[in-house]
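[Meeting: bench + compute handoff]

Bench side (C.D.) handed over the final construct sequence. Compute side (W.E.) agreed to return the predicted structure before the next meeting so the bench team could plan truncations. Sequence as handed over:
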Amino acid sequence: MEESYAKLVDIKDRLADACGVLNVANARLVQLTAELIETDLWRGYGIRSVEHYLTLQTGLSPERARQVVEVAAATVELPVTTGKLAAGELSFEQVHAVTRHQGKFCDEEAASFATIATVPQIRRTLSRYTFTHTTAETASADGGGSTETPTELTSADSSTSGLAAEAVASGRVTQFHDSTRYRLVVDAPADQGALIAAAISEAKDALFQAGQPQVSSFDALVEVCNRSLSGVQPTSRVDKYRVYVHLDTDGAWVGAGPALPPGLVAKLTCAGSVAPVWETDGLPVNVGRSMRIVPDRTRRLVEDRDRSCRYPGCVARSYLEVHHTIHWKDGGPTDTWNLICLCPYHHDARHRGEFLTSGNADLPDGLAFTDNRGHRITIGRSRPPDDPLPGPPDGRQYEHPIGEPIQHKWVYFSPPGETA
């Protein structure tokens, strides 16, 4: 027993050391990102944003890159909180949870609270905190009070700030596809969120009334989607929003989506219609120079093959446009090897001459992107540092959160710029 306890203590100590080094490394990443934002040096051929640049150069996921940019943009307003990241005392996730609510609280107090709270506790507590700024106009109308202009959280309305600005900010839908599953995350203002919840509730009740005793909220969401697609008009738009399942001898998969299990394939093929696509030597028969406009069937094959914009690091999956790598007027055929999916941004950039494409798009590594100076555009590769990563400064270390329940009603924060 004593040996196991000593081993556990040793692991905990090494975990704390590793967390400190990781926090300092993340702080370096945040600092470099802040320099990119300040200098605008991230801008280049086909680069859409700082997040796109990080995804391309560092291998970060788009979601993680967005979080790094959010923390980097908050370094000026939250110097104490981000300073604790650089000192190894807070994790990146703890700091990011605070930056989601920047402008509402005193930086010092928020940083102090974050050192004792887990990430879920920080999110729950700060999201429930109802401190409201007093604007100059309100103070003037009341005959006194603070005249400090509150910090803007969003650009939704120049006259709206603080919690009010966050409440009316535009909603966001994030979609995730992995090998077999699809995930959807909705972040919306309260009124629009209530509308979504009401629609799901109504569909759930309708399914129950139709004789389905066990109905989940997910079943109701699918019903709402089915209703929307069933009402698509005119009929010429129906094919654009149809769900296609690709079948071959190796299995089946949703168009531009994940593979399907055998049981689900059997269910779908019982009631679905089948349109064959003939292949030669493992590749679909193409239309060559006979057509300039990409036929719908060929377009679906290209969209399923690419699944997103082909520009390196771009993750756009919606409103994709099919582009001839060798223009049709220059002799390029309307064959899949000469067709790629590009988002509208990169399609326009390609025709402006910001970058060039060449090669065989049907091969995994057959397509090359170059800028207009002839330099290859590639995904950045990491390399080990010349020296060991620095740890926290002397006397500073990462202390794990206490993990005790937090009573939100007893948590108070001072307005920005003030101390309790």
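W.E. noted at the follow-up: Residues 241-280 form one domain. C.D. will use this when planning the next construct.
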